[in-house]
Amino acid sequence: MKTGKLEWTFMNKLLQYIISEDIDVLMGPAQGEDAAVIRVRDGFLVIHSNPITASVNHIGYLAVHVAANDIAVRGVKPRWFLPVVLLPPHYSISDVEVIFKDMGKALKEICGVVIGGHTEIAPGLNRPLISMTAAGYTASRVIFTRDAREGDLLYVIGRVGGEGAGIIAWDFEQLLTSKGISESVIKAARNFIFDISVVDTALKIRDYVNTMHDATEGGILQAIREIAVASNKAITINLESVVIDPIVNTISEAVNVDPLRLLSSGCLVATVPPQYKNELENTLENLRKPYSIIGRIKSGKGEVYLYRNLQLIEVINRDIIDEIYKLWS
Known about the structure:
329 residues, alpha+beta, CATH 3.30.1330.10, Phosphoribosyl-aminoimidazole Synthetase, Chain A, domain 2, 7-stranded mixed beta sheet, 11 helices
């Protein structure tokens, strides 16, 4: 099988073998949906698990923020965390301490707490793996990926491909140097790792969106595809409207990866009713968050149409394998 997420058609088949329905589960396993939603008393528990498999440096920091983001895009503050940390046999005590210090740093940034988890040395691993579960509670609205509506504006908020560029700068420094990338560019890209939280932004704009999605594995194009499939709509994208940070572009070109299909935690994709355009943009400008309108939601069946200069160049109707796996392979 290919590296990355399993095809959703196959996942649907696998789900037939396990119990995944309950009267209090308002949202269980579904393509594109970021987190489960469970009815509890007068509110909702929102919970999600996410593995970090494509990074080594600062894996603890990434694990907290990536899982937290998937709670935040539900419009809910992430509070509780359970890490499962699998370590390779060659790791030293100081190596392990770095991972936990990084988790602690990220938790402080979003006021989260660890409430359990598991850590072990796993034979056969050549790099650490973390699967993080995050949860939050709300008594108000929960946002679903499936709720994009025809006529919505499609926004990209934040740095496209920043997470992937940062990971490449940390984990593939020698490769970048061999490609002629300067030390200053590598250093700047490394800082992108520490700008991957969407928690504050997502909570501030939740009243203006129909849906929002953190762009993780597969980049913004996979996030957009998941909104299209979950909502059973078509989405059109004007590629010339997508802004790529010059440093991300330099890193991507050097190692031959597409930033639109590259890990992009810290970047939000949101669908917004036109009547909330001004309120949303005023909020983003107050937060000093870069944004652009790159497309619209149309009638359809889950397709994503890519246009450049008004010409259709690609139709996306399959899940995207993240570009970073090219480097690990």
